[in-house]
Design goal:
The chain is of the alpha/beta class. The chain folds into two domains: 124 residues, Rossmann fold, CATH 3.40.50; 116 residues, Response regulator (Rossmann fold). Helices cover 41% and strands 20% of the residues. It has ten helices and ten strands. The strands form two sheets. The protein has a five-stranded parallel β-sheet with strand order 2-1-3-4-5, sandwiched between helices. Strands 7-6-8-9-10 form a five-stranded parallel β-sheet, sandwiched between helices. Helix 8 links the parallel strand 8 and strand 9. The protein is elongated, with a radius of gyration of 20 Å. The two termini are 34 Å apart.
Length: 250
Amino acid sequence: MKTILVVGKLNETVKDLNAYLSKWYKVQVSSESAQVFGGMMKVVHPDLVLVSLIGMGDVQRDIFNVMEMQYPDIPVVTIGTEGERRNFLRFFENSQFENLIRPIDNADVEKAIAKRLELDPVTRGGHDEDNRPSILVVDDNAATLRSIKTMLDDEFDVTLATSGMKAMTMIGKRRPDLILLDYEMPVCDGKQTLEMIRSEEDIADIPVVFLTGVNDRQHIQAVLALKPSGYMLKPAVRETLVAAIKKALA
């Protein structure tokens, strides 16, 4: 299995990318500190370095100097906006470095990595291509997201979103086979998120299973009135959750 060292601020983008890439690669994460990065390189010995330019400013110059001078044979892939890319190219522009422009889907990032590592696209990272049904889990509680991902990872390709608006952005980049949607969320709750999904013709038919932590008759009736593909009470039980997902997908 190939090893990827992901470098950058530990934000939701990096966490999501880490979770996605871990299906095919051994992933290690380093902060943007050049000293920490240098130590990680000696310990991890990665096959490729992936750098998130988000909020790094000029800090990355030290990291790229280390790569260019000490590890010229290890490919480096960066992810940033067009502006961040232009700033990067002022200092580093050779075949060791490849720049990907945000916004970009995690699947496209993985394809770029596989290409740089000269991996067969069917067996990237030494694993068969993931043909499992894709599930998008939407919940504002990080602990709930981690718990559900652990429950489902064996049977499904799971991605996570912490709000309804982030879910809409992710759906626009990659259409999931099913959405697990928290009914009680701040700002944009499950009802509003479902309404946005159904207002878009090309995604309106995606099955949506609600997750709710409130178990009273009036609340459940309000959930069912939206005609979801299913609903589950939290905390979810794995066997019941998997059964509900398979039923909705069928």
